[in-house]
Amino acid sequence: MENIIIKTDNSLVSYIKNVGESNFKKCFQCGTCSAVCPLSTEDNPFPRKEMIWAGWGLKEKLTSDLDPWLCYYCGECSKNCPRNAEPGELMMSLRRFLVGAYDWTGISRLLYGSKYAEYIALFIVALIVFIEWAILFGLSPAAGLTINQAVSPDKVDYFFDWPMTVFLGAMLTSFIYNMYRKTVLSDSSVKIPFKLYFTEGWSLMFNFFTQYRYAKCDDGEESFFKKLADGKYNFWLTHLFLMISYVALFIGIVFFLNWFQEENSFPFLHIILFDYFASIGLIFGTVYFVIKRFTKKIERSKFSHHTDWMFIILLFLTALTGIILRAVIVYKFPTALIFYVYLVHLLILLPMLVIEVPFSKWSHLAYRPVAVYFANLKEKAKNLGNVETTD
Amino acid sequence: MDNNVGVYVCSGCDIGKSLNVERLINTANDAKPAVCMSHEFLCGGEGVSLIKKDITEKSINKVVIVACSMRSKQDVFNFDPLSIYTERVNIREHVVRISPPNNDNTQSLAEDYINMGIAKAKKAEPPVPLIQDLNKTILVVGGGVTGLNSAINSAKAGYNVVLVEKKPNFGGFPYSKYKKWETKPPFDKNVYIKEGLDRLIGEVEASNNIKIYKNSKIRSISGAPGRFSVEIEPANENDKVDVANEDVGAVVVATGWKPYEAKKLDYLGYGLSPDILTNVELEELYSDLYQDGKNENFTVSRKSNNEQVKSIAFIQCAGSRDENHLPYCSTVCCMSSLKEAALIRKNNPDANIYIIYRDIRTLGEYENFYRKMQDDERIFMVKGVISGVSYDKTNNIIDLNVKDTLFKGDITLNVEMVVLAAGMVPNSGEVAISGEMKAEVNNGSDETQGASCEAADPDMSAQVAKSGILNLTYRQGKEMPDLVYGFPDSNFICFPYESRRTGIYSAGSVRAPMDTVFSVDDAKGATLKAIQCIEQTSKGRAVHPRSNDMTYPLFDLSRCTQCKRCTEECPFGAIDEDEKGTPEPNPERCRRCGVCMGACPVRIISFKNYSPDIVASMIKSLYIPEEEEDDNYRILVFACENDAYPAFDVLGINKMNLSSNIRVIPVRCLGSINNVWYADALSKGIDGILLLGCKYGDDYQCHFTKGSELASYRMVNLKETLTRLVLEEERIKQIQLEFSDYMKLPEIVEDFVNTIKSLGPNPYKGF
User: Fold this and answer.
1) What's the CA gap between B596 and B605, in Å, rounded?
2) pTM confidence score
3) Final residue of a domain: which of B426, B445, B467?
4) N or C terminus of chain B with fewer C-beta within 10 Å?
């Protein structure tokens, strides 16, 4: 049994209240939420403990907690909560809080705290992109140039895509290290054998590409195909489709940008695969989620934070301007028009990536699989420990 | 009185189809009644008018209705109770509905019941009620919220009131306090306590029907309902005011509560630091702070350094729900702590408030107040148990160790102020410690031991003698007996406000811990009880639970041996005694349970329609077959009229089969069973005797509190007698039965019958 000296943190309580719509103070700790949760396990039940930690503002407890990332917001807890304390929404709020906790720059906390901060941040990035563009390509294309001459894909790579990728990579890596420090290293109760990091590596990739925990959100007795037919996997599959589309497009624009600026509509098979398939995924996915957030019919779309809206709208606009850009290239519109569409596309795309990926909603694409990986490591290490002690 | 018995057998409701009515009539005729007839629809207009005609023409004065249970058709067979004795023989529920039709055993069961009914009717007489012109004033003891409400409600109902208050002012405990909790949603305002109370006090003081005694207490109360005489003396002995005498009819005790002694809370740190207060002390602090400036804009400061409080912890159940302190929940501490938390949030907006609770108990609508407070971001609800309180002198901080928390471990809280939510102790009189009282108690027990009969009431020694509130001149002690934990309540489930002193009703937090809202309702309830008692008593009728019973016990004192059993065992303290020990009955205090009748070894106590002799004749009238056959075993069942007898009725209504070896005799209470009946029954040849009565013990359900317990106690002595007679003690058994247990009855009876069969028939059969 541990003895903790309780230091309640009122500002943290207010912050968590502010970044979501959970009434976690209303919780009287009956534990119904943990009992009905299809994902929480006997050894590691949640979200009951998170409810009280949040209610008390126990910062250390909360920052070292991986469970918010293990929750996929099926909403069973919120539906069954006798106090309408919205535990599911609390887990969402905690994910927002954790993004800020892992971020040593403090930008995330600003963005989550105020929508105006987010507008300003996006605007600043857009302004930098605009200035860069003006310096590199001018404000209008010289007459007679093709688009590849006016906007060189290499320059876009060198001055936009690759610096951005490096920035995102550096940021996310440092944040994930921070997360590792707070959740794994700080946990003195468990020591992870070095070998385990590699043997469990598969789970990181597996979770990243399948998001199979979404499927586990429904613990009904029916078969996989019955659930599939009943549309119980719609959310998961749409989300997966959207994510894979995004990853495909991201890799495409960062490493194979010149393919996208090719005027031939079917020059290569990969264009079709990457561009067209992924664009459909993005548009379909974003529209699906916008509709869900508007109709508020399912638990996980009941409440929307401003960062949720901003992200989904920017992603939609990025996809939309990307398709228009591709269309005007393929249908050989005047270069000047392509030039401006290109600029608008970048003015949406780059702020979205620079702000949303490390500092806001989009960061969950990194944290979620990593958290599952960490949790897996901890559990495996604990089990190993158990085996040793029983011997 | 003439015995003009008329027997009327009803053959309706399948009685005629299951029994040979002609044979029933022949059996009844053996007892030579004046009239004996059958009718197929006795409760119809024709049947009843037949009986009425016989009453007037043939001057029938004892009507024996052989039909359904005495609990049904009371509105039809309602002949003048003062001139006609009506006996109901239940051959519907207790015979035809539970036994196979057209069977010899069923027939003899019905015939036995008819014989018993006629035997009873021959000896019983209509009651002669004790109608008196009695005093109808209500004495209200205590001028707090409950007392004031009781007084004003009594006055509004048209009764004169004498209101006695110990303090110089009315309003009781809350009067001097700051604000009360909002009792209605949305719980966002706290009203000054005085506002509502002053209005009520004004109303009481302006009423012409209320005679007020402030600064006063009761020196003694003697008498009985309708003729209590009360001596009222100044509360302060130095006051040169004469003792006043008042005559009253009934008493409402609303003496309220006192906080649990803070000194006993030292295990929770009380006394360690001036910043550890009780909830009452915090209330007082609040009212002082308010009184200082007469406005609400004050801040609560620490007593140790006069700095504003930044963190405060409330420890709930401080000394409550704890076997070493107060074993019960006081129901108000949770609400009062939440209210104080709300006040602190207003006055010290920067303070964090921790409420350490085991269970939050906010009754009814108050739950919404709890929810509202729970949602406050500076209020932290801590479920857990305090395992240690220590005071860090250098930092002037109080450390609270809490175990059994929801944090998967123990926690430590560092706070600046601690409030102990201590519980309520009823003001039901102080435990008597004066030499005089001690001597009195000792004397009592000595005499009991010296008496010729076995000491009886197991309860007397368990009750702590108290005095100081009512100072009754009753033989059984100065105050009302406690139900539990010092609360002078009766059975908490069935009879609120009732006490074991007829005509004296407790209300408010002296009865059970409660808040002012509940106290207001309680005052009304107890007032109605008091009014009911006055009115019923003046008509010579009993109060609850034998409401309207007009009989009362008659004592043939010339044969009394002064054994004091009746005066000791009466559950209601109705019987006083003179110096020699001769009982002095007070029929107005009597609830007609018959416990005294059961207690009396020389059988000098009887009712007009219920006496040792009457029941003995009923037993004698039974036909006991002598052949050794399974069907010929005879089991006598004494069934309590309150629960067990109705349970048999319900069994009949549900047509469940029951052994036809049993013969049921209803008794007012198992406590009214006189041991002579066992002897009568066994010598008659009855094979076994089963007592079915209410549950006894701490959570008793006996309508007369002690009756079923006394019955079992008396049986201990009886069993020795049985052994001496070479009779197995298993032949007599008492079973505790609730009304709702009727489903178990067939099994209980079957088991007992089988036990008796295994013992063999009563060897005295046929002697």
Assistant:
1) 7
2) 0.83
3) B426
4) C
B270 and B252 together in one domain: no
B31 confidence band (pLDDT: 50, 70, 90): confident
C-alpha B737/C-alpha B612 separation (Å) is 24
Question: Given an 8 Å threshold on Cβ–Cβ distance, is A6 in contact with B371?
Answer: no
Domains of chain A by start residue, with CATH: 10-102 (1.10.1060.10), 107-383 (no CATH)
The H-or-E segment that residue B314 falls in is strand B311-318
Interface probe for B, chosen from A3, A32, A48, A49 (most Cβ of B below 10 Å), is: A3
Of B360, B371, B411, which is closest to A4 when you measure between CB atoms?
Answer: B411
Residues of B438-449 as b/e, b for ≥16 C-beta within 10 angstroms?
eeebeebeeebe
What pLDDT, in 10s, does the model give residues B616-667? Answer: 999 999 998 888 888 889 999 999 999 999 999 999 999 999 988 999 999 9
How much is the ipTM here? 0.81
Q: B279 and B393, same structural domain?
A: yes
Residue type at position B270: Y
Domain annotation covers residue B133: no
Query: Could you tell me which of B263, B268, B331 has the C-alpha nearest to residue B487?
Result: B331
DSSP letter for each residue of A22-33 = --GGG-----HH
- Same domain for B691 and B665: yes
Query: What long-range pairs does A118-126 form, CB within 8 A, spacing at least 24?
Result: A118/A306, A118/A307, A118/A310, A118/A355, A118/A360, A121/A351, A121/A355, A121/A359, A122/A310, A122/A314, A122/A351, A122/A352, A122/A355, A123/A351, A125/A350, A125/A351, A125/A354, A125/A355, A126/A347, A126/A348, A126/A350, A126/A351
- Show the 3-state SS of B656-696: CCCCCCEEEEEECCHHHCCHHHHHHHHHHCCCEEEEEECCC
Which pLDDT belongs to residue B440?
45
Same domain, residue pair B246 and B265? no
**Domain closes at, from B126, B160, B185:** B126
Give the number of other Cβ atoms within 10 Å of residue B478's Cβ. 20
Instruction: Give the Cα separation of B350 and B340 in Å (integer).
Output: 15
Q: Find the domain containing B325 and state its range.
A: 259-426
Task: Show residues of chain A in contact with B376, CB under 8 Å.
Answer: 25
Q: Does B411 touch chain A (CB under 8 A)?
A: yes
**Rounded to a whole number, what is the distance in Å from the CA of A11 to chain B's nearest CA?**
9
Contact B412 A4 (CB under 8 A): yes
B390 near A CB under 8 A = no
**DSSP helix/strand/coil, B273:** strand
Residues 6+ apart with CB under 8 A from B721: none
Q: B351: domain CATH number? A: 3.50.50.60
* Closest by Cα among A304, A317, A300, A310 to A360: A310
Residues B278 and B248 both lie in one domain: no
Are residues B511 and B631 both part of a single domain? no
Residue B494: which pLDDT band, with cuts at 50, 70 and 90?
A: confident
User: Which member of A1, A23, A25 has the closest CB to residue B409?
Assistant: A1
Are residues B277 and B367 located together in one domain of the fold?
Answer: yes
The predicted-structure confidence for B332-385, as pLDDT tens digits, reads as follows 999 999 999 999 999 999 999 999 999 999 988 888 899 889 888 899 988 899
**Mean pLDDT across A257-273:** 65
> pLDDT for A135-150, tens place per residue?
998 888 888 888 888 8
Q: Contact A6/B408, CB-based, under 8 Å?
A: no
Tokens at residue B463, please?
């009750």
A13 touches chain B (CB under 8 A): yes
Percent of chain A, pLDDT > 90?
A: 50
Residue B185 scores a pLDDT above 60 = yes
How far is B552 from B224, CA to CA, in rounded Å? 14
Residue B755 belongs to domain with CATH number: 3.40.50
Number of domains in chain B: 4
